[in-house]
Amino acid sequence: MSIPQTRQRQRQAQQQQQQQQQRSPLNNNDQERIKNWLNTVYADDVLRIVQHFGDCPTATAARTLDIDSNGVTVAWKSKEGEDQEMQFAFREPSGAGSALQEISDLASDASKALGLAETPQIVKDMDTLNKQRLVSFAFVLPSVPIMAAIAFGLTMLGYLALVEDIHPSLGFTRSLVSQSTWYFILVTTGVVHMLEAMLTFVVCQLIKTFQPRQMSTLMQIQWTAGAALFGGFCLHKFITKLRRQFALADSAKGPSLAGLAGASGHAKTS
What we know:
The structure is a single chain. With 270 residues, the chain is mainly alpha-helical. Helices cover 65% and strands 9% of the residues. A three-stranded antiparallel beta sheet has the order 1-2-3. Helix 3 packs across helix 4 (96-114). The chain is rod-shaped. 22% of the residues are buried.
């Protein structure tokens, strides 16, 4: 076999290995731990998934057989005693944390469809975990004095830049700064605020795309409008939240599994 052919086969093998890793990001320990939880702590939640998505309202004794990056496989008995089995697919290939969230979403949707008032236990635990590891991006206005100062400053800037015959009490400003200079400052300020608003909008869109639970459309509008009106004073609060989220993400090690064990008083690792 020639050297080019050998290298080509090596590259193909590497690509296949990478694809396999992407399809199966769950390691054996994670699979066993999650499966153990689903068969003990969250057995009732799995049963709800089966009853709705498995189209078997009379199902009993649901048992998780396997879980991987693509979905969770569950076996159950129908009311007539018939054994059934099905894999409930995830929306996209999942790691440990996202797999738990996928199962939580399935249990939540199933409970609503079945008309059950009680929130599934896995949903409660995942909500508790998310509060611990996800920063709230709820919109926060600058303080009232800062907003008042910005409003006064922008009003005065517009007045000095756009009004030729200004009030005599402000006439001294003309000897210090010409009207054309004030106009240049006004335009520059507007451009800077618009750039800050555009940056905020793009970052909010990224958060909304990858973490929709953290960023709603309303929040995105609020942060964008806040950056356009109040500039850096509003953007600073947004960046502070963003830095905190990155810090939590960097410091977390196995947050979804280790954290879930703490979120539920009953969860035990195998």
